[in-house]
Every structure is written in C-alpha cells, then in structure tokens.
Amino acid sequence: MDTNLSIETIEVAIAESDKFNYLRNLVVYNVTANSTLVSHECDVLVMSKAGYLTEIEIKRSWSDFLADFKKKHNHIDKTNDKIKHFYYCVPLSIVEKVKKYLFENDIIFNDIITYDDDAKLNIVKCEHSEKVEEILKDKAWSTEHLWLEQQFTLARYGAMRSVKCKQRIANNKIKK
C-alpha cells in the first residue's frame, strides 16, 4: 500500500477541499450503477449547484490503480453522458507513474488529485494526448446536467450513506 490513509479519510478530505466543498456541492460516496444516473460504480460523485457531475476515482496504491484498467468500464458513462469531469485521486508518491501511464495509454481524465500522509490534497494539471484533448473538449460542451428527478435520486443516495454511517457509529457506541 502506498498510503496508510483509509478510504474514509480520503473521502472526507475530498469533501472538505476547496474544489469539491460539501457546503457548496452535493458529495456522495460509493454510487452504484443506476440507469438514470451512471452506468458504473463511482467512488465519489460531486454534483455542482448547476447539476453537473464530477467523478473521483480513489486509488491507494500503484497496484490498485492498475487494477482499475481490468474493469469492464473505463469511467466513461456510455448510457447517459452525465459525468462532466473525471479525476484520479492517488497518493503523492505515485503521481509521476500515474501521469505517465495515463498519457501513454490515452486514458480520458481531466487531472489528477494527489494526497499526502496528512490527507492534504493537491490538483495536478496534466498533459494529454491530442486524442484525449479533443474528447475532453467535446465532453465539456456535450455533457448534460442532471434533471431535478436525477438530482433528487443522487441526494437520496447521499442520505442513505449518511444513515448507514450513523448506524455504524451508534453500533460502535453500544459495543463500548
């Protein structure tokens, strides 16, 4: 493992960051494939006030990062084209290898978010191939925002996750 941080610690750092701030945006974790929202599981989905989605894929190690490319999907939402921006979130220690791999393999992503051992985030601007640049330009103009019903569905997912979290906290207090 290239980090000792838990997934939950990284998720909180993302939600509290200036870029994705949960006070301005809806931040939802572990969104599963849903025919009206996305066609694949997302580690973190952030919805802006305008209803646009950003997906963040969290990786804790180089092997975890490479395993992402064995999945059937590639973080391109083929059914709905609802994800406007896509970021990999990786430990600072592997960012150069990640950048190189993404560039050499024409992987479509916006930029990379890094985190250090103190869960401090940084967005690393990346160079893209011409092919990826063209796709990103098209995506910036063609991505649809969520309709009100879809926004409500995402908010409901977020509420369900918070209830599950509260249940775990309550159960841990009872056990003590």
What series of H and E elements makes up the topology? HEEEHEHEEHH
The strand order across the widest sheet is 1-2-3-4-5-6
Q: Point out poorly predicted stretches.
A: none
Strand content: 15-25%
N→C terminal distance: 30 Å
Counted beta strands? 6
Tell the overall outline.
Answer: globular
Q: How many H/I helices?
A: 5
Query: What's the rounded overall pLDDT mean?
Result: 91
Q: Based on helices, strands and strand pairing, what is the structural class?
A: alpha/beta
Q: In this structure, how is the largest beta sheet organized?
A: 6 strands, mixed
Relative helix content: 25-40%
Radius of gyration: 16 Å
- Total number of domains: 1
Q: How does this model look, in words?
A:
The chain has 176 residues and is α/β, with parallel strands linked by helices. It has five helices and six strands. The protein has one domain. It is 38% helix and 20% strand. A six-stranded mixed β-sheet has the order 1-2-3-4-5-6, with helices on both faces.
Reconstruct the topology from this structure.
Blueprint: H1 7-16, E1 26-31, E2 42-47, E3 53-58, H2 62-67, E4 83-91, H3 95-104, E5 111-115, E6 121-124, H4 130-142, H5 148-175
Parallel strand pairs: 3-4, 4-5
Antiparallel strand pairs: 1-2, 2-3, 5-6
Q: Which characteristics define this entry?
A:
single chain; 176 residues; alpha/beta; six-stranded mixed beta sheet; 6 strands; globular
Short structural summary:
38% of the residues lie in helices and 20% in strands. It is of the alpha/beta class and 176 residues long. The longest helix is centred in the last third of the chain and has 28 residues.
